[in-house]
Design goal:
Blueprint (H helix, E strand, L loop, with lengths): L6 E5 L4 E10 L2 E10 L2 E7 L1 H14 L15 H5 L4 H17 L9 H6 L18 E5 L35 H9 L1 H13 L3 H23 L17 H17 L4 H12 L2 H8 L2 H10 L3
Helix pairs in contact: 5-6, 6-7, 6-8, 7-9, 8-9, 8-10, 8-11
Length: about 300
């Protein structure tokens, strides 16, 4: 140690995640999360659907244990009317969910999904943890900083395309091919119909796109994993009528453009579909849409 200067071993500052408030914007509740990690402090505002997306990502890509998320309520009625203290209970349970995650990491940056969810500043990348894997580090004692909490650097964004106009004709949903497909794959058909409803309506898209995207992603991923011996093999994914495929592509482009947090997952779905010739042909039918896909649905 340097002469005349005392060094001591202290625990690395733990991660703290607390929901300290909530606000409503256009009827949607945003939870204000207060985050402390590695001496930095910032806030992030997240919807319930963002928590659901984080939970899905952690399930697929992380070993962190997770508490159960609170239920959505009966079609959102309990949330809107705050029946039986529903909103207070939900906020409390979301807080417990975050506390459970915080207890398992030394820095937010240790978990990529959590860092993206919390809009982690670049400095907190987990690089200053003890290389031996322990929970302590040698640091020089100093007076705590009284500076204002740091603000996360804004992420690069793509154009939101508020003037986007669909390239495909909704009359495809009355065709005999669609009726036949809907009879065979009712779940996916219902999700695609909702995608087509949201694409031309900016307001409805803003309110419902996260929920519809998560349903679409789960359904497509599940169908892609089907084996050849399944009663409905994965080839059924290619039987989606041509123009209906186009509405899915448009929906994925808009999700990636208007919801940066979901962009990597939209790209994941796009890659899976593009590897299937019927889906690749559908997006190439319209050069402008194909150009948007190349620009927005590419890492």
């Amino acid at each position: 140690k340097p002469q005349g200067q005392e060094l001591k071993v202290v625990p690395i500052m733990s991660v703290k995640l607390d929901i300290r408030g909530e606000t409503k914007r256009s009827g949607t509740t945003f939870y204000e999360i207060d985050i402390t990690s590695q001496g930095q402090r910032w806030t992030a505002n997240k919807r319930y659907t963002d928590f659901v997306a984080l939970d899905d990502e952690l399930e697929m890509r992380s070993r962190l244990a997770r508490d159960a998320l609170p239920g959505k309520g009966c079609f959102g009625v309990r949330h809107r009317l705050n029946l039986c203290g529903f909103n207070k209970d939900r906020r409390s349970q979301l807080g417990l969910y975050l506390h459970g995650l915080a207890d398992q990491v030394q820095t937010v940056g240790e978990c990529q999904a959590l860092a993206a969810f919390l809009e982690c500043p670049p400095k907190d990348d987990g690089s200053s943890t003890d290389p031996s894997g322990g929970s302590s580090a040698i640091v020089q004692t100093s007076t705590p900083s009284t500076s204002a909490p740091s603000t996360p650097r804004p992420r690069p964004s793509v154009r939101p395309m508020t003037d986007f106009k669909p390239h495909f004709d909704r009359s495809c949903f009355t065709s005999s091919d669609w009726v036949r497909f809907r009879g065979q794959e009712r779940e996916l058909a219902g999700i695609i119909s909702r995608c087509a409803e949201l694409v031309p309506s900016t307001g409805r898209f803003q309110n419902d796109c996260e929920e519809v995207f998560q349903e679409l992603r789960r359904c497509i991923m599940a169908m892609a994993r089907r084996g050849s011996t399944s009663p409905r093999p994965q080839a059924a994914l290619d039987e989606v009528p041509f123009d209906a495929k186009g509405f899915v592509w448009e929906f994925l482009v808009l999700v990636a453009a208007r919801r940066p947090f979901y962009r990597s997952r939209a790209i994941e779905v796009a890659k899976l579909l593009e590897n299937r010739q019927p889906w690749a042909q559908a997006v190439r039918k319209h050069p402008e849409l194909h150009e948007l896909k190349q620009e927005i649905l590419t890492e």
